[in-house]
């Protein structure tokens, strides 16, 4: 996507200028930098109870002592953490008055994704005055959820309304001190989602599909907590296939999933942050900590389609604590131009008869670097643990790289661990074959890539899968030829 | 239908086609025979627009239109079909999906809407029956793990689906047992009409018993060294190519 740094700068400049007139908004932004006062101020602005403020401070103190990790196979200029403003009141003023003012390229992408005009407006930040269908849909569905006792709200709301649940579970899967970015997130997270499914309840719909529009404006330090009580089931969709032109360079989200006995959580993500331009300038750094805990007989599936961001650092993991619990990880990571992705999973087998499956599909084009990094750990008490891992890489051209770093630590002799890896290239002959049948090169690549990614695409909820497929096409546009 | 004039093609400065002249009218079947390495597949791929080969002198006309500037997919949209000698595998893409994409891309190029699903299904059913292809086969990944014979039969299935004006079958008979050969040839014959033309590239007279050609050409060392009727194929079967090589050397 040709979005030059100049254009980005200009856009940012005009925005700043625009907002300069609104002193009330201005005053709602905290000064740059990070210290205890700022952490306290964030907590205060969100009117949080004291225990929450303390929790944040604890995280901040830990973070101060930590170093930014360097082990991942990515290189980038480290952000200056004192040069970031950690709190901005939600921006209610529309960025544009009509669609005509929006970057035509962005609109073009929306069109290719088949996003409705109303939704395009909302996503691009255009003022909308008509009440959208989806809003009323959302209201109806909220009612259905409430009838089943399902709580689905922002994490800020949950801290206010359901403190007992938040207090009990927040930080139990990803502790404040877990890693550098998780600690930072714990100290300053601005918002995110909270979801609780009561015992035995099967959530009647894909959570967040109908809320996609509201999800679009998610923040820089997002915090998500999903709790599936005993015997419950939920499928949760995160993110948005529409391109996000966020001016925040650093994104450090934390997602915690808790699946109690016999519960199942399906968590699907499509990540499409701004990847930088085709010369490798700009773009989002995406450092995410995602982890789920499975109690007895529980199951967590992570499915992700990663096409955006300049640098991605992300390892959705499962702690298989309960006997007979199951962890799954299905991933497609696409890198083009100068993008770098270091992604994978950790499957920690603690319980007996635990099972994990890892299917990772890496697609690299341009001069990008795409790494899979996975850990399968079998604890000494985890009798009969089983893992199957398959990591496939597809290369386009000669200038990109694909790397696989599988780590296996088995402390129990009964463990059965299988790892398969393949690397292939899109061949000229495959493309010519498609061309000969009347399929042009761009479409041919999309076809081949979709075929390659099929096992993972099949794991996505239906409507998400269709969008993800189109997204793959768009991400790889112009990568050969 | 097809007219080739003084066609030269090379790869990495090595000249492979050294001046080919060929005229194929609508309704005709031409056979091209010749020893390994004489340039038969190259000719087929050059007609289809393979850019790996550099076309020097010469022209290819399809229904009077010079193909030089046209991309392979544009040629396909105009009705050129090549049954590959070595069809490639495309993992994860089913035969059905591939055909659906191919048909709809061609329709798009002609300004038509996608083919309605029921029409597509009907066509798939009809053509798979014609070639005695099991329906399960159609949901398998394209050519992945197919036997040699299955690949060739699948090529002809695609030809039947796409209904080309000019079909070039490059050694479609190799890898086929006698029953499969009969089925495939029967399929091809059903697709013959006064409006289309077929070029059959083969080593063996065997196929020509089933698909009877109007003309037979012998390609040797990048040139058509002899042309005749189907009796020429029988003569080649009997005498081999050596006498032609000698003739060509003179
Ligand atoms: N891509 C290529 N690069 C180099 N040489 C090639 C290439 N393709 C074909 N050739 C050579 O061109 C000649 C003709 O090949 P081909 O057309 O496949 O013959 P045939 O189909 O008659 O057996 C052979 O000598 C072959 O080695
Ligand atoms: Mg050949």
From TrEMBL, chain A:
Q: Which InterPro entries does the annotation name?
A: Fe-S_cluster_assembly_SufBD, SUF_FeS_clus_asmbl_SufB, SUF_FeS_clus_asmbl_SufBD_core, SUF_FeS_clus_asmbl_SufBD_sf, SufBD_N
**Annotated ranges, domain SUF system FeS cluster assembly SufBD core:** 211-452
What region holds the SUF system FeS cluster assembly SufBD N-terminal domain?
Answer: 46-203
Q: From which domain of life does this come?
A: Bacteria
The entry sums up its family as follows: Belongs to the iron-sulfur cluster assembly SufBD family.
Under the heading PANTHER family, the entry gives: FES CLUSTER ASSEMBLY PROTEIN SUF (PTHR30508), UPF0051 PROTEIN ABCI8, CHLOROPLASTIC-RELATED (PTHR30508:SF1)
Q: What is this protein called?
A: Fe-S cluster assembly protein SufB
Which organism is this entry from? Flagellimonas okinawensis
Output the lineage of the source organism. Bacteria, Pseudomonadati, Bacteroidota, Flavobacteriia, Flavobacteriales
- What's the gene? sufB
Automatic annotation (TrEMBL), chain B:
Identify the keywords attached in UniProt to this record, alphabetized: ATP-binding, Nucleotide-binding
The protein's matches in SMART domains, at most eight in alphabetical order, are given as: AAA (SM00382)
The UniProt record lists the ABC transporter domain at 2-246
The similarity comment for this entry is: Belongs to the ABC transporter superfamily. Ycf16 family.
Q: Which NCBIfam families did the record assign?
A: sufC (TIGR01978)
Mind telling me what this protein is named?
Fe-S cluster assembly ATPase SufC
